[in-house]
Amino acid sequence: MISTGRNFGSDNVTPASSEVIDAIAVANCGSLNSYGDDPHTKRLTKLASERFET
Q: Which phi and psi angles does 48 have, rounded to 5°?
């Protein structure tokens, strides 16, 4: 059988970059309210609203 060299691996098998891991570690520090009542979600909501003019 001839090998085609195709890779059907998922795109979620690659590790996250060190910058992503560092940002998650910073965001995961301390105790915060959940489900949208945290400063990270509020900041993202504001930035997305400005970007998409909603």
A: -65, -40
- Is the pTM higher than 0.70? The answer reads no
Model pLDDT for residues 14-44, shown as the tens digit of each residue: 788 999 999 999 888 888 877 888 888 899 9
pLDDT at 19: 96
Distance of CA 12 to the CA centre of its chain: 12
Whether the CB-CB separation of 20 and 14 falls below 8 Å is answered with no
Residue 41 exposed, middle or buried by CB count within 10 Å (0-12, 13-18, 19+): middle
CB-based burial of residue 22 (10 Å sphere; 0-12 exposed, 13-18 middle, 19+ buried)? exposed
